[in-house]
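Following up on my earlier thread - several people asked me to post the actual chain instead of describing it. Fair enough. Here it is, all 467 residues.
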Amino acid sequence: MLRISNHYISKVVFSLLFLEVLILIGSFYAGAGLRFFDGDAFALPKLDHFFMSACVFAAAIVFSMSALGMYQINFKAGMRMPFFLQLMPSFAMAFGILTLVFYIAPDLHFGRGILALVFTISGTGIVLARLMVLKTSESSILESRLIFIGCGALAKECGELAKRAGNYRKYHIAGYVPVPSEEVCVPEDGLLKLEPGRSLVQLANQHRVSEVVVSVQNRRGGTFPIKELLECKLYGIHVTDSTTFFERETCQIRVDSVQPSWLVFGGGFDQSFVRAFMKRMFDVAVSLLLLLVSLPVMLLTALAIYIEDRAPIFYSQERVGKDGQVFRVLKFRSMFTNAEKGGTPQWAAKNDPRITRVGNIIRKLRIDELPQVINVLKGEMSFVGPRPERPYFVDQLTERVPYYNVRHSIKPGITGWAQVRYGYGDSVEDAVQKLQYDLYYVKNNSLFLDVLVLIDTFKVVVFRGGR
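Reply from S.P.:
Thanks for posting it. Predicted structure:
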């Protein structure tokens, strides 16, 4: 796995993306050359911004393919059927994006003849590239061999995660090295015993292991093989902590197994002035753009709410923001005016009877969240961040869930990593799952991760709905 701005990216997906960008830009030049082929030589059209047009074309295709989930590759399931079903819609979406770009920036426009050839060539190139990646994935080239240190409940959970990790990476579990103080929770035939006189490095080399995952719950008592692990690292074998393994494979930080020292001495949690300034500029730019684009939708929504249930159109509610400060979040009203008769806050359920007909639609399409751009422009929220919760629930969750207050170290967001990765939640258990994604975002937040969240949000709203 690669780390780009603290976020884990599969080497396979990064390589595929890089290869496809080259194919798309090359296809643009090839299509233009064929279009203006005069019988003796290839001649490119005289456009002042030809390379920029090629980059815009490549960006439109990559964005469309990302929005349709074409870079979420599952090697166990294969890529054949989903890939061919998604390729044509992604090209259609890219065509719409290019039409809008050409309307805004006419200098980047190129003719329909070039566009038809470019789409044909690039489509063929992408198909061939993906088939090559699929064929490679069927071999053992992408397979990583693991040894887990430990044989208890944590080691079992890590092993089960490795077996499920079909996205981007394949694992072969060579076995589990037992620790004397732990109860055996893994299959007996998977245990690897160190014979007298043999080191952990020799055992790893015997099984051709490339990574050792330390999955021991209790590291006290003198049974933890720290010297052997250091020797493995010195001999080029990657040594990974179980918390880092979970973070890498699930894009979560597990609150039930994380050690405070790991949070303190590990990387991430960038709260520098430069990061804060870049995030604020990003928030303002995206919010103003969204406000401009969505203004007609917001006006129609306000009219629909008024026709169904009269005023008020908007709904203001207290939420907890950065550093525990309470502010009032602004949303389109999606529930009846007497939704909480008793005055006691309630979790919003998936099929909540308090939701109006218009409210049901705007909640599925996330339109009810649009007025929160005002909160972003006021500086109370960011565009991307943990979703703000009500003070009543924050008090409960802070007492019951470890590290819950960590999510308040940054501004809350209209959308977030937990929203695009987990979806709807209406219980304490769901809050824990979302917190684990929020902790990952707080630890690894960056402009790059914000862009990924926005692409995933677009995919959720347009192609999947719900939340």
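The chain is about 50% helix and 10% strand. That should answer part of your original question.
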